[in-house]
From TrEMBL:
<dbReference type="GO" id="GO:0046872">
    <property type="term" value="F:metal ion binding"/>
</dbReference>
<dbReference type="InterPro" id="IPR050197">
    <property type="entry name" value="Aldolase_class_II_sugar_metab"/>
</dbReference>
<dbReference type="Pfam" id="PF00596">
    <property type="entry name" value="Aldolase_II"/>
</dbReference>
<feature type="domain" description="Class II aldolase/adducin N-terminal">
    <location>
        <begin position="8"/>
        <end position="192"/>
    </location>
</feature>
<dbReference type="InterPro" id="IPR036409">
    <property type="entry name" value="Aldolase_II/adducin_N_sf"/>
</dbReference>
<dbReference type="GO" id="GO:0016832">
    <property type="term" value="F:aldehyde-lyase activity"/>
</dbReference>
<dbReference type="InterPro" id="IPR001303">
    <property type="entry name" value="Aldolase_II/adducin_N"/>
</dbReference>
<keyword id="KW-0456">Lyase</keyword>
<dbReference type="GO" id="GO:0019323">
    <property type="term" value="P:pentose catabolic process"/>
</dbReference>
<protein>
    <submittedName>
        <fullName>Class II aldolase/adducin family protein</fullName>
    </submittedName>
</protein>
<keyword id="KW-0479">Metal-binding</keyword>
<dbReference type="GO" id="GO:0005829">
    <property type="term" value="C:cytosol"/>
</dbReference>
Length: 216
């Protein structure tokens, strides 16, 4: 089996995502660059049909140029276009994680940037919510590509909110990208509560310039 270790890791991570409400039955997909030519990627309907409980062989090996399956059991999701937009934007990007993550979706659905409040998420900078484009559409992939090109340049760590839809996270490898998703979700949970505390007059949310550790 090609890229056995990487496909086992990916199958393991998508299970965790589902169990941790980092994606839901409506979708989500994950990919990782494993060579100059190939990515490994979760198959279409992974969430809807299998609740993300997939075997490593169901993780597809896909040729980046032809976007055809090299090995694996299943079909390619249409949302590969969003993943390829990230890989084509920056060769240093080695993994893309897309989820319908519970707490982040509050902000994504409101169409608002997420206040970045926790120390562990400071390295993300501004957590931007992109303009709406329909799920799986080329328009959505183009929206992602345009945002990366115009705002991000060579940044490898990215955390974007997809309006009314979910989140898109990138990094140099899958371990780091999934770590980012966890940090993003915790920050979303905190930010939602913090905004409510502020609004209810329980405690003012202050924006101070702390001496954050952004490297951990
Ligand atoms: Zn989606």
């Amino acid at each position: 089996m090609l890229y056995k270790k990487e496909r086992e890791q990916l199958a393991d991570i998508v299970k965790k995502m589902f169990n941790r409400y980092e994606t839901n039955t409506a979708g989500g997909n994950v990919s990782a660059r494993v060579s100059d030519q190939h990515i490994v990627m979760s198959p279409t309907l992974m969430s809807q049909r299998w609740h993300c409980d997939i075997s490593p062989y169901q993780v597809l090996v896909v040729d980046m140029e032809t976007e055809k399956i090299v090995e694996g059991d299943g079909a390619i999701t249409r949302e590969i276009n969003m993943h390829m937009a990230c890989y084509r934007h920056n060769r240093e990007i080695g993994a893309v994680v897309h989820g319908h993550s519970l707490y982040s979706m509050v902000f994504a659905t409101m169409g608002m940037d997420m206040p970045n409040l926790t120390e562990a998420s400071q390295k993300f900078g501004v957590i931007k919510c992109l303009d709406f484009a329909p799920a799986t559409s080329q328009e959505l992939a183009d929206t992602v590509a345009t945002y990366l090109r115009e705002n991000v340049k060579d940044q490898v760590t990215n955390t974007l909110l997809l309006n009314r839809h979910g989140v898109l996270v990138t990094d140099k490898n899958l371990e780091r990208a999934y770590d980012n998703l966890g940090r993003l979700e915790y920050n979303a949970y905190i930010a939602e509560k913090a905004l409510l505390f502020d609004k209810l007059g329980i405690m003012k949310l202050e924006n101070k310039d702390y001496n954050y550790n952004v490297h951990e």
